[in-house]
Inverse folding.
């Protein structure tokens, strides 16, 4: 019959075998003094600090910024870019600066981002309505792939940007449709 061990019923520390007992030294090797390990079950000591003094824990914003900069570096992309208001460096970007960039009138806001994408799509259009539809399909595919990469849902600003792009492209395409006169 096999005995069952219940770790919740222990009343004190359980010493583990000494290292020299657990591992037999090979012939000719010197036996070094072993450190004894102990395991306590059922006893709880209060812990004043989780990680110890001097540990720098990053904020969620810093973690995200580090992830973005690492991803950009791995793709061989620059970590600095120019906007109308100056140079921006992802490695030193503060949360306040990031919020300004995605604000309604910011460089990465819905209006300015959608306009840059629409301008790019129209420049590749070449007066051919079929190419415009191909551009819309490519943009749609890009947003779908980004949505998958983000676990099935994009942030609200991305959804608004997508909708604004499609509205602007539809308005542009409407000028090439024959009028109902």
């Amino acid at each position: 019959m096999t005995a069952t061990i219940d770790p919740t019923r222990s009343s004190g520390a359980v010493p583990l075998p000494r290292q020299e007992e657990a591992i037999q030294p090979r012939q000719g090797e010197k036996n070094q003094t072993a450190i004894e390990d102990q395991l306590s079950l059922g006893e709880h000591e209060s812990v004043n600090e989780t990680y110890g003094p001097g540990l720098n824990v990053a904020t969620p914003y810093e973690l995200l910024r580090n992830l973005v900069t690492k991803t950009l570096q791995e793709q061989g992309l620059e970590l600095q870019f120019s906007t109308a208001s100056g140079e921006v460096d992802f490695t030193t970007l503060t949360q306040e600066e990031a919020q300004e960039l995605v604000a309604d009138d910011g460089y990465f806001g819905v209006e300015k981002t959608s306009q840059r994408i629409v301008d790019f799509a129209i420049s590749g259009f070449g007066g051919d309505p079929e190419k415009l539809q191909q551009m819309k399909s490519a943009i749609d595919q890009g947003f779908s792939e980004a949505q998958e990469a983000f676990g099935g849902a994009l942030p609200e600003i991305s959804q608004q940007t997508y909708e604004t792009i499609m509205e602007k492209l539809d308005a542009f395409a409407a000028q090439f449709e024959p009028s109902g006169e």
